Structures are given as C-alpha cells and as structure tokens.
Amino acid sequence: MPPPSTPPVSALRLDPAAQDLLFRQAHSTHAFTGEPVTDETVRAAYDLVRYGPTAFNQQPLRVVLIRSPEARRKLLGHMSRGNREKTARAPLTAVLAGDRDFHTELPAQFPARPEAAGFYADPGVRERSALFNGGLQAAYFILGVRAAGLAAGPMSGFDAAGINKEFFADSPHFVLAVVNIGWPAEGVRHSRGPRLDFQQVFSTA
C-alpha cells in the first residue's frame, strides 16, 4: 500500500521525523513487548501535552494507571470480550476519566476570570464540558505516549457503569476511555486503514 500523501515540508514547522513518530508511522497497537513502562516515562509524556488547550483551562482529565494485579483483575471484568485479552497482556493500562468537579480548580487554573467557576454551577453543564474537554486531553495524552516512542491502544469497548463503580464510586470522576500502553512488538501491525482526503473533510463557507 502506498504511504499516506504528505503536504510539502515547508507547510509544516514540525520536523519530518517527529511527524512520522507522532502521526505517519504511528499505529494504534494491541501487541507489545514485555518491557515495562515506567512512571517517569508517563510523567514525561504528560508534562509535554498538559499544555494542550481546554475551555477556561479547566483540565478535567484524571488518569488511573493500572499496575497492581488486583486492579487489573477488576478492570478486566469490565472490558468487552474483544478487548480483555489484549488488556491482560499490556505492560501498562491507563483508565482516562473526566472530573465533574473540575470547576473547583478554576480559581487557581484560570485566575484571569475569578467568576469562571460560576459558569459551571449546573451539574449537567459540568459533565458535558468534562466529557468534551477530557476527550481533548485524552487525544493529547495519546500523542504524548507516541512522543515517548511508545504505542497506545485506546479502547471504548467496556462497561462504563462497572468501571465507574469499581474505580470512581466515591469521586466525581467518570471513565472516558481505556488505553493500553507499551513498547510496540515487531511484525504485528495491521495495514493502515484509509483516511479521508482533505476535500472530503473540508469546505469553505
């Protein structure tokens, strides 16, 4: 299969090797080597991508790193059958969640607008905002994983109510995605699926 079409190098400031690392050669991965993923590596990935924008700098993403056998056993019980085995084998799994009470952090995180927390007095508004902006941060997080040379396998096939009860029963957090993380195994990639062309996605009004 021919490689994806690329824009002229002059159109992008990002180094071509970084473009490949983050996008063109990166794949969603479900098979990893046995090499562990350290907290230091995860921290470096987060420290890079935490600067991605969210509304009013609200940053609702919360992450649980599944490291203990007991936590993994609990998580596996709520994964869909197709995702259970790959999650059992992954060196590290992250449960990405949104925080419904992100607004309590806004006085410190968005001091330019002291009244911003009041914009989210309605719980439904907070949940919708946490869902959208937490989703943005989840995408940034995957890019950070790739920037570290790791591969990510994000999944939505799980029992959300079960995970929320298991991991977030006493908190305002709710699961957004589950992501397997590790160093990609050789020779197990599937062919990349097609992508929509610019003309199929963009219009001008």
UniProtKB/TrEMBL annotation:
Superkingdom, taxonomy of origin: Bacteria
Pfam families documented for this protein: Nitroreductase
Domain Nitroreductase: 24-183
Any one GO molecular function term: oxidoreductase activity
Annotated InterPro entries: Nitroreductase, Nitroreductase-like, Nitroreductase_HadB/RutE
Protein name: Malonic semialdehyde reductase
Lineage, top ranks: Bacteria, Bacillati, Actinomycetota, Actinomycetes, Kitasatosporales
